[in-house]
Amino acid sequence: MTEKEKKQKLKALKDTVRNIPDFPIPGIQFKDVTPLFKTKESLRDLSDVLVEEYKNKGITKVVGIESRGFIMGPIVALELNAGFIPIRKEGKLPADVFEEAYEKEYGIDKIQIHKDSLSENDVVLLHDDLLATGGTMLAAVNLVRKAGVKKIYVNFIIELEDLKGRVLFPEEIEVVSLIKFGI
Ligand code: AMP
Q1: Residue nearest to atom 12 of ligand 1 (CA)
Q2: Rounded Cα gap, residues 69 and 54, in angstroms
Q3: Cα pseudo-dihedral 127, 24, 39, 82, rounded to 10
Q4: Alpha carbon nearest to ligand 1 atom 15, residue
Q5: How buried is residue 26: exposed, middle or buried, by Cβ count under 10 Å (0-12/13-18/19+)?
Q6: What is the residue extent of each domain of the chain?
Q7: N or C, which end of the chain is more exposed by having fewer CB within 10 Å?
Q8: What does the DSSP assignment read for 104-169?
Q9: What is the C-alpha separation between 119 and 116, in angstroms, rounded?
Q10: 44 annotated active-site
């Protein structure tokens, strides 16, 4: 894929994201990613730009965050010839888990990953649909660190730049988002 083709695809993808004002509560500009998956053209373009970004990085596992990280996560894993691992909310995974707690707007949330899902030789691509404050992904990074992997890459389809969630991540972690909005 040439740089020009990549730019064109990203522009079309950005135009496809749907903004829903005041969802789920007044004041939130909700970025609806479902139109990106709706047509074969945009699903293909989204997959292609993600694969282009990570194809030479030696990714062995794509780790997706419940629940919107479960859509492109397995598609990209298949294309990268990697496995897929889910990070889920507390109480959903049946075997032994590592756990990480993090603060949400109202109270504390917990996410979990199976203890036997990753190993020290894994190069991990952590994927979610959207970077807002960054709290969810930072907890996911800490969770994957508990599993003791070789390297972690962080990816989002969308970044809300004005919220500056990116500053939470240490320098050694490469954070890539495909589409950027102010808020
Ligand atoms: P955060 O931990 O603040 O970075 O929030 C990230 C999670 O919340 C992601 O999994 C998103 O799906 C969801 N999220 C937060 N803000 C928005 C928004 N404005 N539009 C759509 N999803 C959002």
Answers
A1: 130
A2: 16
A3: 10
A4: 132
A5: exposed
A6: 3-181
A7: C
A8: -SSSEEEEEEETTS--TT-EEEEEEEEESSSHHHHHHHHHHHHT--SEEEEEEEEEEGGG-GGGGS
A9: 7
A10: no
Q: Whose CA is nearest to atom 18 of ligand 1?
A: 30
Task: Please give the average pLDDT of every successive group of 10 residues along the chain, which has 183 residues.
Answer: 97 98 95 98 98 98 98 98 98 98 89 98 98 97 97 98 97 98 91
Q: Which of 18, 14, 12, 10 is nearest to 35 (CA)?
A: 18
The owner of tokens 């994957």 is: 144
For the domain made up of 3-181, give the CATH fold.
Rossmann fold (3.40.50)
- Tokens 């694969």 correspond to 51
Pocket test for ligand 1, best of 17, 136, 137, 168 (most atoms within 8 A of CB): 136
105: annotated active-site residue: yes
Per-residue confidence (pLDDT) for residue 104, from 0 to 100: 83
Predicted confidence at residue 8, as pLDDT, reads 98
Pocket, ligand 1, Cβ cutoff 6 A: 28-31, 68, 128-136, 165
